[in-house]
Design goal:
The protein has about 130 residues and is mostly helical. Helix content is about 90%, strand content about 0%. It has three helices and no strands. Helix 1 crosses helix 2 and helix 1 runs antiparallel to helix 3. The longest helix is centred in the N-terminal third of the chain and has 50 residues. The radius of gyration is 28 Å and the shape is rod-shaped. The mean pLDDT is about 95.
Length: about 130
């Protein structure tokens, strides 16, 4: 790759990457919002399971165990938690992608600075044909 091609590539990256980063951050924020909504769905499912639980234990400890078991065995709670875990995994991946785009942008800036310094050096000390 010659200097002209390299400079063009650097310019393109510096123009494109900020928009990619913006889009990644928007997607990440929407994912966080969905995750918060899903936490509410899990909470609602747990509350419904608690209300519908058949508790007949003889003491408080036994009733507490039965309630905990009823919530854990609720298919609505299990489904909501499965979706919550999937959304958490998706958010982790989105965050990693955003960090990768940020790193790529920092690398493009560093490359631009390096290329600029190189061009300045070549202009200051041109090659001699001796």
């Amino acid at each position: 790759m010659n200097d002209k091609e390299l400079n063009q590539r650097i310019i393109e990256d510096l123009l494109v990457i900020p928009n990619e980063l913006r889009e990644a951050e928007i997607i990440q924020a929407k994912s966080r919002q969905s995750l918060d909504e899903q936490k509410g769905i899990v909470s609602d499912a747990e509350f419904d399971a608690e209300l519908n639980a058949v508790i007949d234990g003889k003491n408080a400890e036994e009733r507490k165990r039965q309630l905990k078991q009823a919530i854990a065995e609720s298919s609505a709670v299990q489904l909501a938690q499965t979706e919550l875990f999937a959304q958490e995994a998706e958010l982790i991946e989105l965050e990693a992608n955003t960090v990768a785009i940020s790193r790529r942008f920092r690398a493009a800036i560093a490359l631009a600075e390096l290329q600029s310094a190189r061009m300045n050096l070549l202009a200051k000390y041109p090659k001699s044909d001796n």
